[in-house]
Design a protein that fits this description.
Blueprint (H helix, E strand, L loop, with lengths): L9 H31 L5 H13 L1 H41 L2 H14 L4 H12 L1
Helix pairs in contact: 1-2, 1-3, 2-3, 4-5
């Protein structure tokens, strides 16, 4: 009886190589997520951060999985809070830009230009009719 190996079946060899590469990329992505969460945290000190980094360097898979098991829920809460804060900042920016581009704002800018002598009465009147129409 002969032993069948992956070399005898090139498609199986390709499948196994694909799985290994996928696992390696997944592990790198996991480390990036863990490290980004560790270094963004403000509730732990430098010693705890160093401990997590050393653990994930010495025991890469075990350290990453331990971090996910022990900190997974708070990791998700921190990510959700950060996304909410980014959304609020974006909404505030959009409101400020929209407020500046409203017709009343344009008319106030035109009034300021008229008072400073940059535009004439006729140009101001043209702008006012465009805003009101």
């Amino acid at each position: 009886m002969t032993i069948v190996s992956a070399v005898d079946y090139p498609l199986l060899n390709l499948f196994w190589t694909t799985m290994v590469v996928f696992g390696w990329i997944l592990w790198i992505w996991l480390l990036i997520r863990v490290y980004s969460d560790v270094f963004k945290r403000r509730d732990i000190g430098a010693g705890a951060k160093t401990g997590w980094v050393v653990l994930t360097i010495i025991f890469p898979l075990l350290g990453s999985f331990l971090y996910l098991i022990t900190q997974g829920r708070s990791m998700a809460e921190r990510a959700e809070r950060e996304a909410f804060q980014q959304r609020q900042a974006f909404d505030e920016y959009v409101r400020s830009v929209a407020k500046e581009s409203q017709p009343e704002g344009d008319l106030a800018k035109a009034k300021g230009l008229l008072e400073s002598g940059v535009i004439t009465e006729q140009e101001y009147a043209n702008m006012a009719t465009r805003v009101h129409s």
